[in-house]
Design a protein that fits this description.
With 179 residues, the chain is mainly β. It has one domain. Helix content is 0%, strand content 47%. It has a 6-stranded antiparallel beta sheet with strand order 1-4-5-8-9-12, with no helix packed on it. It is elongated and about 80 Å long. The mean pLDDT is 88.
C-alpha cells in the first residue's frame, strides 16, 4: 500500500453586498385626464438581494493513495429578501391609484440552504468516482423566484425551490487522463 494522504481542510467564504438604488426615476399616469408624474425612485432593483453568502468546508480524509481520494464537503448558501417586480414603489401617487404601487406585493423573504456531499474519486485506483449528496438538508420551504403582475393583471405567481434531495452520482472515465 502507498503512503496515506495528509489531512487537508479547506474553508471558503464568498459574501456579496449590493446597495443598488435609483437616484431618480419617474413614471406617469392619468389622474382625472391629466398626465401626472409619480416618483418611483424608492423601488428596489428586481431580483437583486442586498446580501448573499456562499460558505463551505471540505475535509480530505487521510486514506492511502492507492484507494483514491475521499472527501466530505458541507456548504451553506444564504440570500436576503428580494423584490420580484421592477417597479415596486410605495408611492401610490396623489390619488393613491398609481397602478404599479405594489406596497410589497411580490417581495420574497430571504432564505438559507445547507448541503453535504461525500466524494470518492478514483475508487481503489479505478477510473470510477462515486458521490453521495444531500441538498437542502433541513427541507426548507423557499421561493427563489416569482412573476409579479399585481399592478397589471392583479396576481403574482411563484416558483418553489427544491425540497430535500438525496442522491448518488457515479462516473466512469474512459481513455487517458491528462494531469
Amino acid at each position: 500500500m502507498e503512503a496515506k494522504r495528509k489531512r487537508f481542510v479547506s474553508v471558503t467564504v464568498a459574501p456579496s453586498l449590493t446597495d443598488a438604488v435609483y437616484k431618480q426615476w419617474y413614471d406617469s399616469y392619468l389622474v382625472k385626464g391629466v398626465l401626472t408624474p409619480v416618483n418611483i425612485s424608492d423601488s428596489k432593483f428586481a431580483f437583486v438581494p442586498k446580501f448573499q453568502v456562499n460558505a463551505s468546508i471540505t475535509y480530505d480524509f487521510p486514506i492511502p493513495q492507492d484507494l483514491g481520494k475521499l472527501s466530505l464537503r458541507g456548504s451553506y448558501y444564504y440570500q436576503s429578501a428580494i423584490q420580484t417586480a421592477e417597479v415596486n414603489t410605495s408611492n401610490c401617487g396623489p390619488d393613491g391609484l398609481y397602478a404599479n404601487c405594489h406596497n410589497g406585493y411580490g417581495a420574497l423573504p430571504g432564505y438559507g440552504l445547507g448541503s453535504a456531499r461525500i466524494d470518492w474519486h478514483s475508487v481503489a485506483a479505478a477510473p470510477i468516482d462515486v458521490s453521495i449528496f444531500v441538498n437542502n438538508i433541513t427541507n426548507k420551504f423557499y421561493r427563489p423566484g416569482a412573476e409579479n403582475a399585481v399592478g397589471i393583471l392583479g396576481f403574482a405567481s411563484y416558483s418553489f425551490g427544491d425540497p430535500r434531495t438525496v442522491g448518488v452520482e457515479a462516473r466512469v472515465r474512459f481513455g487517458r487522463t491528462i494531469e
